């Protein structure tokens, strides 16, 4: 039983990291209708900024906050300078652009900071506490708590502020939003900036576990995308629930299903997604998209 | 290549040129040194892989990040069959059919989701494929990989190994290119083009987007299998690294840089795949990825049709001496097929109807 609880809590903690990245992807997807494959790469870049600042003697908390700010600016710039031109065009081209961005950003990280692993300090201590007989690490609880706070913040931002309302308006119908006087371009930049800032948090949370490398987020990106599909591309809540589900199920499968084990647990979200898609193509919480001709 | 009417449009001239080109290509392996021949053979291998990707992505507009997986499966099947003494014909057929069946199963699920879900799901193939190849070590040799030298030149041919291997690539790859060219220029190619430009219109014309997406993806994985067979014939070694995500991204970049929805572009893509890392290594091995990303973005910004469209773009710039307007930018990266002219003729009338694109 102790092991089971431990696995579930660790799964929720991992799932939380996928959830942040998935939320960032949904944020961009809602605003621009495209999937940003570079989201993970941008998060790695943010993590490198954090790491660089701590290497220069800043405290970790301050470094993360500065990196979040810098990521917001960089994300907005990427939208303005690179993505803007492809947003109204063919969505498949835009996706290829994000894949190009992923390669470029990973390449920049590798070029500037080499492909060697860098040690990244953890925000939370690694000591464990005992809950119902299970040894649960402070890090797992801390990660989960950080994500919960971020979600509440986002929820408040989107539902409780004028800025959030404007963002949602742009997402639903950019043309009408522009006609009612909203600065659509700047709001899109803000959307990308927010997504990049979220990525910075995800990067700082995952880097201590995986150690910092340019390809650190590749697997997390895969999990996040699976969560996006599973949860339904249009539903933030659904995506977070799906990410937790994936985190828990893969942890349980790694231990209890002999064939899967630790090396093949990356297949779990996809088996899960595969099954769900055959039954519900729109995802667990998504709406059916109807095209108007 | 020969657009100007007159001499080159006559059937017998074209046939003669084709015949001369074929003879010239067949003479190539005899005339070069071993290093060049091996490079050319590798280019052929990856040109076939890019061609497969082009069928699903360039012609049908479904972004696939999983093409390398099918190449890898084809290579593993070939290696397994060759080391177990199967007949070479059986090996070839198995190395094509097994990836094809896997591709069909993946596509049946992925194509149910509209839009970009295929891109997201196919990303999983290399990510899951690498640990899976390590796990199934009874068949794949685990992390060590499999090697098999089944493609040595036979005694009677009197050729060196590198020459023989290049011939294998030329014959098998040539056949695949010919078949694919016919596929994308015919009825199916037109159906692919409509599915790419507007799924709702395709459906209203009785062309099931689902069915054609599945078809395109399956064809792409079949071609990927051929590429895997050729890979094994040329490289003679495969390991889990063969089907890593990085290679799949490079394959996609090669396709866009070479020219999407283009047969010649696939060849250029294969050349890019093989030669670009070699060039970048001369500069600094650490910058390979950086240069590739930058080049991919540059091509998307400046030359959306890929390298294959370069002569056309230059010709157009020379012809019209006025500043280029929106007309040039209309061609999206996965835009007008350079060779499949019939497909293009259909497409503009389709997209001329003011329609909303299904998201």
From TrEMBL, chain A:
GO MF term set: transmembrane transporter activity
Membrane topology label: Multi-pass membrane protein
Any one GO cellular component localisation term in the record: plasma membrane
Annotated transmembrane regions: 12-28, 60-82, 94-114, 145-167, 187-208, 220-247, 259-279
Pfam families to which the protein is assigned, alphabetical: BPD_transp_2
Swiss-Prot/TrEMBL keywords: Amino-acid transport, Cell membrane, Membrane, Transmembrane, Transmembrane helix, Transport
Subcellular location: Cell membrane
Gene Ontology BP term (one): amino acid transport
Family: Belongs to the binding-protein-dependent transport system permease family. LivHM subfamily.
Protein name listed in UniProt: Branched-chain amino acid ABC transporter permease
């Amino acid at each position: 039983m102790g092991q089971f609880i431990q696995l579930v809590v660790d799964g929720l903690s991992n799932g939380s990291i996928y959830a942040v990245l998935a939320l960032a992807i949904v944020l961009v997807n809602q605003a621009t209708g495209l999937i940003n494959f570079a989201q993970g790469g941008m998060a790695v870049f943010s993590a490198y900024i954090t790491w660089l600042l701590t290497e220069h003697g800043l405290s970790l908390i301050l470094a993360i906050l500065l990196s979040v700010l810098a990521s917001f600016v960089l994300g907005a710039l990427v939208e303005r300078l690179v993505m803007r031109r492809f947003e109204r065009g063919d969505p498949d081209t835009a996706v290829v652009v994000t894949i190009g961005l992923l390669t470029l950003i990973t390449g920049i990280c590798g070029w500037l900071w080499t492909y060697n692993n860098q040690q990244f300090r953890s925000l939370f201590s690694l000591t464990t506490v005992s809950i119902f007989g299970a040894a649960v690490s402070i890090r797992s609880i801390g990660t989960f708590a950080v994500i919960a706070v971020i979600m509440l913040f986002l929820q408040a931002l989107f539902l409780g502020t004028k800025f959030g309302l404007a963002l949602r308006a742009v997402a639903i119908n950019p043309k009408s939003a522009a006609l009612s006087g909203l600065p659509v371009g700047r709001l899109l930049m803000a959307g990308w900036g927010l997504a990049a800032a979220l990525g910075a948090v995800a990067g700082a949370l995952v880097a201590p576990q995986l150690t910092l490398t340019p390809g650190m987020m590749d697997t997390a990106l895969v999990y996040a995308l699976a969560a996006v599909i599973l949860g339904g591309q249009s539903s933030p809540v659904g995506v977070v629930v799906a990410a937790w589900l994936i985190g828990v199920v893969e942890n349980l499968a790694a231990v209890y299903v002999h064939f899967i084990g630790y090396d093949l647990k990356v297949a779990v979200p996809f088996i899960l997604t595969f099954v769900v898609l055959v039954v519900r193509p729109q995802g667990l919480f998504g709406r059916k998209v109807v095209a108007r001709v | 290549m020969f657009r100007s009417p007159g001499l080159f449009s006559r059937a017998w001239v074209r046939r003669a040129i084709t015949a001369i080109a074929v003879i010239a290509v067949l003479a190539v392996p005899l005339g070069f040194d071993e290093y060049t021949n091996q490079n050319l053979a590798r280019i052929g291998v990856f040109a076939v892989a890019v061609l497969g990707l082009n069928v699903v992505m360039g012609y049908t507009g479904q972004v696939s990040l999983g093409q390398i997986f099918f190449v890898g499966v084809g290579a593993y099947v070939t290696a397994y069959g060759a080391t177990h003494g199967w007949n070479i014909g059986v090996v070839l057929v198995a190395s094509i059919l097994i990836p094809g069946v896997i591709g069909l199963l993946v596509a049946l699920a992925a194509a149910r989701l509209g839009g970009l879900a295929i891109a997201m799901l196919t990303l999983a193939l290399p990510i899951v494929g690498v640990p899976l190849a390590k796990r199934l070590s009874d068949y794949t040799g685990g992390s060590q990989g499999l090697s098999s030298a089944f493609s040595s030149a036979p005694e009677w041919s009197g050729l060196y190994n590198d020459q023989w291997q290049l011939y294998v690539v030329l014959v098998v790859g040539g056949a695949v290119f010919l078949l694919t060219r016919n596929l994308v220029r015919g009825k199916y190619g037109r159906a692919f083009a409509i599915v790419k430009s507007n799924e709702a219109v395709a459906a209203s014309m009785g062309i099931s987007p689902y069915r054609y997406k599945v078809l395109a993806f399956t064809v792409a994985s079949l071609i990927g299998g051929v590429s895997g067979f050729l890979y094994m014939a040329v490289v003679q070694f495969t390991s889990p690294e063969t089907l890593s995500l990085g290679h799949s991204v490079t394959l996609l970049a090669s396709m866009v840089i070479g020219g999407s929805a283009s047969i010649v572009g696939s060849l250029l893509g294969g050349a890019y795949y093989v030669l670009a890392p070699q060039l970048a290594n001369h500069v600094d091995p650490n910058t390979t990825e950086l240069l590739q990303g930058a080049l991919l973005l540059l091509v998307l910004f400046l030359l959306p049709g890929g390298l294959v469209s370069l002569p056309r773009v230059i010709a157009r710039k020379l012809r019209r001496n006025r500043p280029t307007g929106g007309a040039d930018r209309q061609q999206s990266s996965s835009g007008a097929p350079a060779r499949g002219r019939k497909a293009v003729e259909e497409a503009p009338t389709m997209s001329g109807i003011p329609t909303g694109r299904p998201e």
